[in-house]
Amino acid sequence: MKESRRACLKQMMLSGASLFAAAGSAKAEAEARTGAQSPADDPFSATRNQRMTWWRDARLGMFMHFGLYSVPSRGEWLMAVEDISASEYAKFANDFHPAPGSTRNWARAARDAGMKYVVLTTKHHEGFCLFDTKLTDYCATKMGPKRDIITEYVESVRAEGLKVGFYFSLMDWHHADGMRCAEDEAARRRFVEFVHG
After folding, report:
1. Where residue 74 sits, what CATH number does that domain have?
2. Number of folded domains that form the chain
3. Which of 99, 77, 105 has its CA nearest to residue 89?
4. What is the pLDDT of residue 51?
5. pTM of the prediction?
6. Which domain holds residue 155?
7. Of 1, 58, 104, 151, which residue is the least packed, with the fewest Cβ within 10 Å?
């Protein structure tokens, strides 16, 4: 029986919480192995103030959602909001063909608007990867455009002198363990391995 949208969203939030907990557990394990226990021991803390100063000074950046949901153009939560099955939703990949040069146009528009950085979804909740990966065929290099959109994006944004950012969703409505990981330990381990991979 098909789950209600509310049950689906609740399950996704639990799945996300499970992954965050796993990340915290992995961090604690790494700290135990390396002896790093305070912020001063964090390899990134030495540059934190410098990085945060840059970010505060940059002030203006662009966050772009882009994925299969761009085909029907009804929002990035389309799959959940309209209760579309993963198999039906995956058909959008057949029509997902970003025009060559799109990323150059985005980067140019961002620079012209005074942006200092751009963040792009590499994989949103729908689970479709805009980059090349060996872990799934549900990606832009194997379906739809058959090219790596993220590589194009990075090259375009850097060519305009802007900083590059990535957004990778921990939720995954396509992966078989994406929903099960909140309640099934074996599924959680498999899904965490997939996400880290």
Report:
1. 3.20.20.80
2. 1
3. 77
4. 86
5. 0.76
6. 5-196
7. 1
